[in-house]
Write a structure and sequence with these properties.
It catalyses: Typically cleaves a -Gly-|-Phe- bond to release an N-terminal, basic peptide of 5-8 residues from type IV prepilin, and then N-methylates the new N-terminal amino group, the methyl donor being S-adenosyl-L-methionine. It is found in: Cell inner membrane; Cell membrane. Its EC number is 2.1.1.-, 3.4.23.43. There is one protein chain. This protein is mostly helical. The chain folds into two domains: about 1-100, no CATH class; about 130-255, no CATH class. About 70% of the residues lie in helices and about 0% in strands. The protein is built from ten helices and no strands. The two termini are about 25 Å apart.
Length: about 260
């Protein structure tokens, strides 16, 4: 039994939630700054008065509650995106350890934390950075074996075949229609997800992601006048959500 396994259930959930909130603060900064070409190393500043934000005002979730979502110096409202991402990352950590205590739950939490910035960047900018996809893939190859009890070969197969199949689909669509039907980052994301799930669970991920994308497109079609075939779909968002959701579902349906 490892030290992680020895943690009481409640302590594991609380610790994962706290760590998730801290990581969520960094993830929010990354998502806001990276697309704008800004450095991630600079100090946080108020968007309104440009004064640096002190350490006591950077405590995830807590500082925003104490300051009622405003700057300590000028009172201007702080972008709620920060708090939302911190809360999402905290829920990913706490939820993972609540459902899967021990090492397996921690690996699932790491999976969720790595997927979160990819989903947010795709939702906001239709962008799946190669560096984040590569980080996700490497982490999956190195860490993900105990998550779904998959071997290294299973995960390599999923990465190569899953990414290759989506790349082929994208190429065939472009060849036939003369237009881009899938972003270049989507096959790489699926390959990286396969490095976590193995080939056995990857079809479930793709099914859930496709259903989510179709549902979103139909709902969006009902709210706008843009033809469905011309509407851009952030497939990465649904792939990330499906990948994280598929873990407990696969464990449930694969029980013998």
């Amino acid at each position: 039994m490892t030290a992680i396994d020895a943690l009481p259930w409640g302590a594991g959930v609380a610790l994962a939630g706290l760590l998730g909130a801290v990581l969520g603060s960094f993830i929010a900064t990354l998502v806001l700054r990276w697309p704008e070409g800004q450095s991630l190393a600079g100090r946080s500043r108020c968007d309104a008065c440009a004064r640096p934000v002190g350490a006591r005002d950077l405590v995830p979730l807590v500082s925003a509650l104490i300051l009622r979502g405003g700057c300590r110096h000028c009172g201007a409202a702080i972008d709620r995106f920060h708090g939302s991402v911190e809360l999402a990352a905290a829920l990913i950590g706490a939820g993972a350890l609540a459902l899967l205590p021990g090492v397996q739950g921690w690996i699932w939490a790491v999976f969720g934390w790595l997927l979160l910035p990819l989903a947010l960047l795709d939702a906001r900018h239709f962008w799946l950075p190669d560096r984040l996809n590569l980080l996700l893939a490497i982490a999956g190859i190195l860490l993900a074996g105990p998550l779904l009890d998959t071997g290294l070969l299973d995960r390599w197969i999923a990465a190569l075949v899953g990414g290759g199949v989506l790349a082929l689909v994208a190429w065939l669509y472009r060849k036939r229609r003369g237009a881009t039907g899938m972003g270049g980052g989507d096959p790489k994301l699926v390959a990286a997800i396969g490095a976590w799930t193995g080939w056995q669970a990857l079809p479930l991920v793709l099914l859930l992601a496709s259903l989510g994308g179709i549902a979103w497109a139909l709902i969006a079609q009902g709210k706008g006048d843009q033809p469905l075939r011309e509407r851009r779909v952030p497939f990465g968002v649904f792939a990330c959500a499906a990948a994280w959701t598929a873990v407990p579902l696969w464990l449930l349906i694969s029980v013998r």
